[in-house]
Each structure stands twice: as C-alpha cells, then as structure tokens.
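Running low. Got one?
___
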Amino acid sequence: MSLLPVDTDALKDICRDVAMSNYGFLYVTDKKGELQSAYESADTGTLNASDLSGSDMRDALREVANDEFSDLERIRDGVYYVDTFSVGSSDAITNELTSTFSHNVVITSETLRSRFDLAMDDVEFFVSELTERDLVQRITAGERDYYTIGPRLKEHAENVGFDSQLERKAANGKISHSDLEDIISIAATKDIIRYLEQEGYVIDLDGEYLVESALGEFGQHAAHRIEGSVEERFEESKYLLPTAEFPGVIRSEIEEQFDVLSYAHRVQDDIVEETRDAVMTRLGLETEDDMVVMREEFDAFVDQEARRILGDVKAEADVLPASPPEFEEAAEEHVEVVQVSNTARVNEHVRESIADEFAGVVAEEEFGGVDA
C-alpha cells in the first residue's frame, strides 16, 4: 500500500473511460491490469501515489462511488456502472440493440448477456436501465422473461429484418409453427404469439400463422382458389356486378374456401381487398361507372344483343328506318325488355351499354360508319 493518497480524480476519469467502452460497465477484476497501467501513466502529481495496488484501487473506487457528484455507481462488489444515457454517450448501446433486433424480434437474457459482454448477475440491472428508457420491452412467458424492441428504439430502427424472414419462410402468405420458431429462435409460447400479433407480425390461425406483411401473397393464393366460383357469379349476371356488392362476393368465397377471416378480424378488409385485386387481374375485370365488368365477355354479350335487336328491328319493319335516330327509336322497346338480373341498376347499365353499342352497329353497318 502506498504512503501517498490515490489521485481519485485521475482514477475516476480512467474508470469512466473504461466503463464507457464497455456499455457503461466496469468489471474491476477483469480490468485491474488496464486500470493500474493507465493510472501509472497518468499525471498524478508529486503529492499522490504514482502506482496503484489492488487494495488501494478498491478503497479509492469506493470513495469515488460514494461521491455524490461522481457518475460512477457501484452496483455490486467489484462492479461499477456509468449511466451512458445521462452523460450523452449511449450510441454504442442503441446501435448494438438495433443490430440485435434487426435479426431477432424476441431475445433472451442470455442474448443480452452475450451481446453486451455482461455477467449474468448484471443482466437484470441492465434490463431495468433499458426498459426505463423504452429501448426494450419485457415479455413474461411462464417462468421465463423475453425481451423485444422498445417503442423509443423502434422509432429509429424498424424491424425490417424480421418481416423479411417471415416473408421468405411463408408459403401462400402463411407460416407453420415450427418455421416461426426457427425464425425467432425460441419457443413460440402463447405469450410470444400474443406479442407478435399485437405488433402486427402474424395472426394465429390455430396451428399456423398468417404473415401480415405477406397478405398480398395470401390474396394471390386465395384468388387462384376462388376465381372459378367468382367467374360463375359473373356469368350468371351477364358479366357484371355492382361495385358495392363485389367485395361481399369476394368475402363470401373466401369464407367458403378458407377459415381465415374469423381469426383475422383486424385485417379482414385488407385480405378481401388483396384478394379482390388479384381476382380482378386474373379474370380481366374492370370498373365501369358503378359496376365491375368482365371486359371481354361483357363486350361480346353487349355486341351480340345489339346485333340481335338490329335483326329484330329490321325483321319487324315494313320500311327500314331512314336514319340512325329512327333505328334507335325503333330499338328502344327491344332494349327496355332486356333483363339479366334482379338488380335494377345492373339491368339499367346493361341496357345503356346495349343502346350505345346498337347505335355504333347501326352507324357502321347500315350507314357506312356515318352518324346521320
């Protein structure tokens, strides 16, 4: 033991620097040689000890930690901590957490211990520091605790990596229980699944999971399964349906083929929308005014009806109409009796389309393409 006092200011600065390089933690036993070497190289003056024994170091550190103005805190014997958040140097912690959660949506105490090079006895203290600042959240699952990204950290570090992993593993927008566990690297307990649902990652379908970021893929799969039934509905109504009714048709067909909507309450409308868009592409559907139309088939039907009516008008006339307007007037009665649906607006749209097509056919075939 030195006869001269330890320069506690110099020791405090040295310990602070070492702790800051290790996420705020100073393990005296592990860093003893480094602390002694740094102290002996420091300018401690002639009135202070120029070297540092183990006992001198322990006594001086207790004195430093007891100083109300010191930012070095003793958390247990031989372990000290500097609150890097208070001293404005927490980037190393937030960067490490961001990196960790970019690959794992849920982590264990062991993961934290390993990533931050902590003693297991200090994990709970560190978690308290992180949760207090909303950098991590605790998930209690039975006797074990798990941790996930906190709201403050999530503002600056979206968990893109996890979404991507889910999408890659998903088949037709869904993922199995075992594949989900492979991604999160822990048991997918009810508490974990509840958290993943709350965060909008998956929806529990009782044994498998719908991946929310892959709803488009599920919509494509659902469209493939239901397009035949939807096509039949269009054929029954001569290839058009009211736009307002179409989502209901899609919803009904999804419910017929899949047990998904009853579980996915929060995203029911999104599933219907994704499936609707995919069905429209697969069947060549278009919106026209307030109708959804199977374009090619509807146009063919309208053209056929227009030509049929033209034939009827010509067959009934003793003298053919002398102008397009006269033909159209003669066709009005024939057009008005066309009925393809029990819905008045559907019949009205069909009649308007036939009347327009009739005018075009008459102009082209009866008057050489010239409207008179």
